[in-house]
Fold:
Amino acid sequence: GAGVSQTPSNKVTEKGKYVELRCDPISGHTALYWYRQSLGQGPEFLIYFQGTGAADDSGLPNDRFFAVRPEGSVSTLKIQRTERGDSAVYLCASSLNPPSVDNEQFFGPGTRLTVL
Amino acid sequence: GNSVTQMEGPVTLSEEAFLTINCTYTATGYPSLFWYVQYPGEGLQLLLKATKADDKGSNKGFEATYRKETTSFHLEKGSVQVSDSAVYFCALSSNTGNQFYFGTGTSLTVIP
Structure:
């Protein structure tokens, strides 16, 4: 079956602009996660959705970052007033059930964001 | 808090060589431990996992043992292949399971 998909695969924008990154999770997966991976680093947790609600947004770096999942499937990560430091690969993952300690998350290929 | 430290790369090995990638962790509670692999141009894929102390995860000839006494989860493979060339990430899950904490990744290149 189809895996997690993310669009666009690459996004180049200018400092100060607004961007939206989209994630399509695996069909039927109730949990959805966003991570940010900077160059040479491992992914860092941003936010987790269970259904439509953000159950844990403790990883969002500041109020310029916001994410929604209005129908409990597709999610959009929104970044306002982008800064050069926001340049990274943004990863989305989904899992079948609410998280448990041994839950497997399935990752998408990521969106590479470059802020000039 | 939770964190993962893994050996820095890049690592270059000849085909059929023995592989070890070290991973140690700091965690509150009793996390599960994971190795994820990222092949060129692809997304992260789960390679193996272990959910409690002394468990051994294994897959595709790779294995790792959850060592609570040394807080380690080293990845090993007895004979690597060119197709194993990828970036390997060690990770642990939070007590609630909704957050993963990843190491910085180790790039492996296997040459024929």
